[in-house]
Amino acid sequence: MTTTIASDQAPAAIGPYVQAKKFGNMLITSGQLPINHETKAMPDDVAEQALQSLMNVKAIVEEAGLTVGNIVKTTVFVKDLNDFAKVNEVYGAFFDKECGAYPARSCVEVARLPMDAKVEIEAIAVAE
């Protein structure tokens, strides 16, 4: 049986999907755009976008009763792979601060992201 997870600390889905689904001890998030849930705005800077996407993932993971330390896999989608170093720096600092460990990760360049975002991040977390 699956459970839909919805956090009011992350932006609502902008299409026909949910923020996350929990199945047993596994949580799978949808891709999180860098939208601030309070202002509904998206920063222009790619580093700020990466951090906002990660904060949105964190809010959803915590809504499901898990922590950032439970994240076992992320996929990072970037509009321009030339931004990889900036995104990587923010990503590393985020996981260092939150749990001191890194999940497995893929990072791919895409032609375009919704709302012309520069970054989108999805995650899989598992309760221990």
Helix content: 25-40%
**Unreliable stretches covering 5 or more consecutive residues:** none
Could you tell me the mean pLDDT? 97
Helix/sheet category: alpha+beta
Number of strands: 6
Total helices: the number is 2
Taking the sheet with the most strands, its summary is: 6 strands, mixed
- Counted up, domains total 1
Estimate what percentage of residues fall within beta strands: 25-35%
Q: Given the C-alpha coordinates, what overall shape results? A: globular
CATH fold name:
60s Ribosomal Protein L30, Chain: A
Q: How would you spell out the order of helices and strands?
A: EEEHEHEE
Distance between the termini: 18 Å
Level-1 CATH class name: Alpha Beta
CATH hierarchy: architecture? 2-Layer Sandwich
CATH superfamily: RutC-like
Strand order across the biggest sheet? Answer: 1-2-3-6-4-5
What gyration radius follows from the Cα positions, in whole Å? Answer: 14 Å
Q: Secondary structure elements and their pairing?
A:
Elements lengths: L1 E4 L14 E4 L2 E4 L16 H18 L7 E8 L5 H15 L5 E6 L9 E8 L2
Parallel strand pairs: 4-5
Antiparallel strand pairs: 1-2, 2-3, 3-6, 4-6
Helix pairs in contact: 1-2
